[in-house]
Amino acid sequence: MAPKRKKSPSIDPQGIFSGMVVFLVETGVQSRRLQIWKQKLVQMGATTEERLSKKVTHVFAINSQALLQQLDGQLLKRFKPRVLLYQWLEDSLRSGEKVSEDQYHLLVDMEGENTKDKSLVLKLVNENTSSADELSPHNEKIKSDVKKFKSDAENKGLSEVPNSPGSSDSSPLSQTLTNPIPSSTLHSDLSLPYSPPDLNRSITEIFGKLINIYRALGDDRRSFSYYKAIPVVEKLPFKIESADQVKDLPGIGKSMQDHIQEIVTTGKLSKLEHFETDEKVRTISLFGEVWGIGPATALKFYEKGHRTLEDLKNEDSLTHSQKLGLKYFDDIKTRIPRHEVQEMELLLQKTGEEILPGVDILCGGSYRRGKASCGDLDIVITHPDGKSHKGFLTRYVKRLKDMKFLREDLIFSTHSEEGTDSGVDTYFGLCTYPGRELRHRIDFKVYPRDIYAFGLVAWTGNDVLNRRLRLLAESKGYRLDDTGLFPATQASGGKRGARASASLRFDNEKEVFDFLGFPWLEPHERNL
DNA sequence: GGACGGTCTTC
DNA sequence: GAAGACC
DNA sequence: GTCC
Q1: Same domain for A313 and A206?
Q2: Which residues does nucleic strand C approach, with CB less than 7 A?
Q3: Same domain flag for A312 and A224
Q4: Does the annotation count A259 as an active-site position?
Q5: Distance A493 CA to B10 C1' (A)
Q6: Can you tell me which residues the record assigns to a coiled coil (predicted)?
Q7: From A105, A138, A259, A339, the catalytic residue
Q8: Closest protein residue to C7 using CA and C1' atoms?
Q9: Are A506 and A118 contacting, i.e. CB atoms less than 8 angstroms apart?
Q10: Which residues touch strand B (CB under 7 A)?
Q11: Which nucleotide is nearest to A223 (CA to C1')?
């Protein structure tokens, strides 16, 4: 079934900038900033003009020098727009309403000097990095879920020193799916971390715990509701002091308001405290960490009287996969340093090339998102010609087993081999870093290019931004999955092989950012 | 009060 | 075909 | 849990 897309971008015609027609002087402004401003203006009701005309009500510039460099003074005189410093925008955005323009008028005496101190302005601009707001509070229905909101180790192991996943702009997929750049591009350019305000962490932290708990209990729906609420709360530019301030936000209903109210007044959430001290909840959560054991089975074991992982080992109803999950429980939990993932990716690419020249093999997931360490390997495979991926996975897996890279299987299914069928081949298993016995989880997915239009692979290396990015994608009816792929559509609908809409295909990350209206960040700009 | 994913394994 | 689990 |  073709994807239902469309839906206007999240624009609020009644937003605070409603009615403004804006011309932005680009001189002296980082293009990223500019994008953010432009986007915010549009989202909050303004329209932007590419050239100065009589329609224009406001002109923004960083200083008068820049202004005159780009605009003819005569035109300004003729059209008489209000000429303001960008700082007005920033301050308005921060306060959530239009601030008085008084302080921000950019006086232009035709000679070009100006009262404001340029360096000061720049400094102010640098300071405020309240980032793009993607969503206005109403609008858009969420059309599809983001599954896999695993808040696994990625969230716990906060020690993120993300590297910059690299990506070149103009490359077709085959090149986009190349290796992340080594860590050298970092700290190239100064300060100005693109750091969104994060003023409500007390709330999002608690919600994060609830996500895990509800998921362990098998209540994925509820869990997902909290998952969705986090980026909404997270992007607020102010510290919440009362539930009133969130009552109209998307994804925040009655219960969430109550929770927020309790958190901001007492600093904690009794509901969470109860969960955390409940033996049953704790035990089920623990059992659920074993690969292959989910909420239902965990509960069953709990009711049978099992309380520890040792107890579980004596359980005779375990499946093969569950036994493996138990046996390698500690191994699997061990995180893999980034550089090792990189080496393994290289090895996998090399091996793949030997079997099928031209094949695209890439490590996605948290590695691609620039994490300093990864919980597992998430390997994405495709082939540029759209056909020769068929049958590849079987040979590939065999080869990797021969060389003792792959050790144990968890799931292995192939759909691409049977002629007309163009499903997704999947392999889940355990692998080892060469010369070591420690098991790591590894997934392979082979995507026929026509079914999955590929999106970005790197995300941003910054969790807060990533959540927003995903939320944004979702608000437009798309799904951005954990591996970093953008499935164009579901390959389902009765018969696999139904052709996906080709309307959604991105050849590089920038296209995806643009498509979503997310400000483009160079790789080195993505880290906090 | 129903929807909120797609796919594979196991029963 | 339903339940359970995983991404 | 939220949205419709």
Answers
A1: yes
A2: A 147-148, 150, 218, 288, 290-298, 325, 365, 376, 378, 428, 441, 443, 482-483
A3: yes
A4: yes
A5: 24
A6: none
A7: A259
A8: A148
A9: no
A10: A 144-145, 147-148, 220-221, 224, 317, 319-321, 411-413, 415, 423-424, 426, 490-492, 496
A11: D1
| Within a domain: A28 | yes
Question: Would residue A377 count as lying in a domain?
Answer: yes
Strand B, nucleotides < 7 Å from a protein CB: these are 3-11
DSSP notation for A255-287: HHHHHHHHHHHHSS-HHHHHHHH-HHHHHHHHH
Is the pTM for the entire model greater than 0.90?
Answer: no
pLDDT in tens, A220-256: 999 999 998 998 998 888 999 999 999 999 999 999 9
With 90 as the cut, is the pLDDT of residue A283 above it?
yes
Q: How confident is the model at residue A49, as a pLDDT?
A: 83
- This complex has an ipTM of 0.94
Paired residues of A443 in beta bridges: A378, A428
Tokens linked to A131: 């980032």
Whichever domain contains A90, its CATH number is 3.40.50.10190
Rounded Cα distance, A231 and A528, in Å: 17
**CATH code, domain with A229:** 1.10.150.110
Protein CB footprint (7 Å) on chain C nucleotides: 3-7
- Asked if residue A273 belongs to a domain, the reply is yes
Least confident of A43-52, A124-133, A282-291, A462-471: A124-133
Distance CA A252, CA A235 (A): 13
Q: Which ranges of A50-157 would DSSP assign to H, the alpha helix?
A: 64-70, 73-79, 86-95, 118-127, 153-156
The gap between A4 CA and B4 C1' (Å) is: 16
CA torsion angle A434 A438 A441 A443 (round to 10): 20
Enclosing H/E stretch for A513: helix A509-516
Q: Which of A265, A290, A317 delimits the end of a domain?
A: A317
Task: With respect to residue A329, please indicate whether it lies within any of the assigned structural domains.
Answer: no
Domain membership of residue A361 as a residue range: 336-447
Query: What is the reported pLDDT for A335?
Result: 96
Please check whether residue A475 is in contact with residue A197, taking contact to mean a CB–CB distance below 8 angstroms. Answer: no
Ranked by mean pLDDT, the top range of A179-188, A253-262, A462-471 is: A253-262
Measured in residues, chain A has a length of 528
Nucleotides of D under 7 A from a protein CB: 1-4
pLDDT above 90: percentage of residues in chain A? 35
How many domains does chain A fold into? Answer: 4
Give the CATH number for residue A466: 3.30.210.10
Q: Are residues A495 and A441 in the same domain?
A: no
